[in-house]
Amino acid sequence: MLERAATKILVDEIELSADISLPDPSRGLVLFAHGSGSSRHSPRNRHVADLLNRRAIGTVLTDLLTAEEEARDAETAELRFNIPLLAHRVVAITDWIGREPRLKDLGLGYFGASTGAAAALVAAAERPKLVRAVVSRGGRPDLAGPSLKHVVAPTLFVVGENDSVVLDLNDSAMAQLPAETERRLEVVPGASHLFEERGALDRVAELAGDWFARHLAYFG
Question: Model-level pTM?
Answer without folding.
Answer: 0.94
